[in-house]
Structures are given as structure tokens and as C-alpha cells.
Write the C-alpha cells for this entry.
Amino acid sequence: MTRMKHGGDAGFSRRRMLQRAAAAGVGLPLAAASAAATAPEHAVTAAESDAQPQVARAAFTVPTPVFSLAERNRRWAAVRANMAKPQWNLDAIITAGSDALGNNARYLTQIVIQKYSQSAPELFFPRDPARPVVAHISGARHVEEWTRRLRGGNWLSDGKLVLKAESGSEALAKLLAAEGYNRPGMRIGVAKLKGSRFDPEGLVSATWFERLKSALSGVVFLPIDQFPPQAGNDTGPIEDASMSKGPEEQDVIRKAVSLNEQGIAAAMAAARNGATRLADLWWACFETMYRGAGEDVIRCSLGLDGGGNMTLGEPTDHPVRAGQICNQEISSACQGYGSQINHAFFVGTRATPGYEYYHTAVELLAKVIDRAVAFIQPGKTTYGDFLANNEKTMKEFGERGSGLNTHGGGLGFLSRPRQSAEDYLVVMQPGHTFDFKPAVTLDRAKTKDVGEKNRPVQVGESILVTEKGAVRLGTRAIVPIATHG
């Protein structure tokens, strides 16, 4: 090991510095870790360093596929039923490797390729249930690892899902031809070709698509993402099916919501324990959510005396001070599924100036959430009805809500419906999950904050539509919270 010297005999090793940083806590600034490591004392040899006791680590969840064969078959049947509808009449659906998130392929296979590892799965999903679903997932290592991961869940047990170490338009064209899908008039849907909510111009590589069309000149390729919906609740063959979550999907969303609540609690604890920067709150929240699921955190954004999005989802050096209101927009992932939770908290005590303003706003938002949940009638209430009712509730309280307050929860960004003119007519159905996150900046003429302007306050909850109505998926009490009691 190469050792560094810092004056006299106060040598230190990188190994020792990292050990001390770990022992002092993950949030210890690097500068402090270096200072601890360079404290005057005898140098530690490599053998002595290796002999140091191991630091106990917090529990960490290793993500593994959990969805059953029955859940796979439920999804496949729902998507195939949509493909058979007259407005679609699709013979097959394919996904493109250039869709980096790959959530359409993940919904149908559970397979996800980590960013910058290889292209996303290129999937062939036939409408005919007698034919296999084939996933091209690039290198052999991906096939080997995903064969191992999916074996326990039986998704590969009946031969209906096949993994191949292939990629690119040429390989997919050969597969389609071998399966008999190169005949003139065949209708093949292309996921993320165009028309989705977040990617209106699509995520399909132009070169990949042109080569595929040239190799299969008689095939009709069609976009399958519908924003806005074209007929009733039809948001596209895959998204329409994915909006109504099965019991197993609901379970992982509940776990994600629980992790969100734990993340907010960790941020509050960091504020209580003397955090000086917003980055300290961010890290406490992020680490808690990441450890709990072992997956990329979909959203971790915190703001002080502003919206939860004000820091653009990044840790920042904004100072933490007594009297601030911390808003968030956070969503952990469990099996790729997430729903956003928000719960503004107050830094300080109930006697700290500004708390009364914050308290009034949170109590108002708690009432808005309760009324919103009670309003929902599955099969009758549209998302437009829901928005209108929430605006009516705010007016009854003499306030006006602000910002986007409803969007879907589910697999990554495969989340419909969303508060927008396009989705107003979508009817809430059992199994729908969505995020309801009302925000308010109280009318200054009625309730005055301590500063020159009133601050925004936001509280958000994940909602599940059931056969009988709707329920919150969070378990915390929606009440005002001061970090120091």
C-alpha cells in the first residue's frame, strides 16, 4: 500500500481514512474524514490496518424479481386483449434498445438493464399466446444473470419467455422473419415510437427503425402510446393494462410508499440532529430509501422555503436554519415501482416564528386530502371530476391550490393518468394508483407568514382506487411536524 505523509511521523493511509469516515458516519464530510485520519499518532501498517474490526453496516436490501407466474400471465393477457381491439388489431409489439429506461419491456419481462451497461431489452411480444415472447438483451452475461434471477419466479419455466444474447435491428428483423411476421400487412406496434406524455417525439433510434423497416418492407409499424387517450380510457395497449395494478403490484407500491415515509423521517431526524446543509437532509433521505430497496431512487428533491423541486432533485449547499419549511418530492423504487410522497416539515419548535403559518397550511391540506379520497367513486369519477372537486374544496376554505397535484404512480415513468387536459376523461378504475400532492400558499390577507411573502406548503399521498372507493397507501398521520417538538 502506498502511504502518504503529512508532516513528521503523522502518516496515514487511504484505507485508514475510509475506515474512520465509515466509523464516524456516512454523512461525515470528506474534509472532516481527512482531518480525523491525519490526527497525530503513530502510522498504521497494512497488516495492522487489515486487522482493524469491521464497521457494522445497516441492513441493505438486495433486489430480486418477485412477481409470480400468475402475475406475468395476468399482464400478458391484459395486453393481448388490448392488442385485439379493433382500433389496434396488432399482431405483435416490439420495444427499442434506444428507450433507455425500458419500462415497457420491464413490465412484460421484469428485465431491466442498468444504465450505460447495454441497450435496453428489444422485445418481441406476439399477440398469439402460443408463440414465445423473446427478449434480446445484448451480451451473454445479461442472459446468464437474468436466467438466474428469473428462474425462481418461474417466468422462464414454461418456455414462453425466451432470452437471447442479441441486439440491434438486424437481429430483431431476423427474429420477426423466422417467426413469420415479415408478411405484407402484418401490424406491429412500436413502444415509444411517438406520442407518449413525456416523450412526444419518441425514443426510437431513427437508424434502427429505418433499417428495420427496410428489412421488413411489407410490415405496417404503428406507434402504441396514446397521449391523449383516443377512445375512453385507451392510453395504449401496454399503458392501459399497466394503469390497473394487480395485488402483487399494489404490494410493491405499498413498500415503496413506506420507504418514502422512512426517507422523510430520516431527513427530519437529520435536521433535528443539527444538519447545516440541505445536502445533509437529502443524503439522509436518499440513503434510507436506497438501502430499503436496493434500487435507483426515482425522485429525491428537497427545498427549503420553496417548492420541493426548487433544487432540481440534487443535494445542495443551501443552509438549514430554524424557522424554515422543508418541502419534498420523493419517490423510492421497489421492483421499479414508485409513488410520490410529500410531507412538509418545520425546522424548529412550535414556538419558532413561522410555525403557526406552517401549522395552518398543513391542517388545511390534510382536510383537502381526506375530502379528495372520500370523493372517489370507482367507475364513475374521472380525473377531471377529481381535479374540479379539489379546486372546489380549496375555494370552500377560502384558498387556492397551486401547481401540478395529481399524477400516476407505477413502474418508473410508465405512469398514467396525469393531471392534464388530455387525461381529464380517464375514469378511475379499481387498481389505479396515483399521487395526490396538493400544495398551497395561504392568502396573506388572511394568514400572514413571518417573511415578506407567504411560503408554499405541500403534503402528498399515494392513493389506491379499490372496488369500494379509495384508500391512502401511506400510514403516517398527516399532521404538522416540528423537528424539535
Q: What stands out?
A: The longest strand covers residues 457-465.
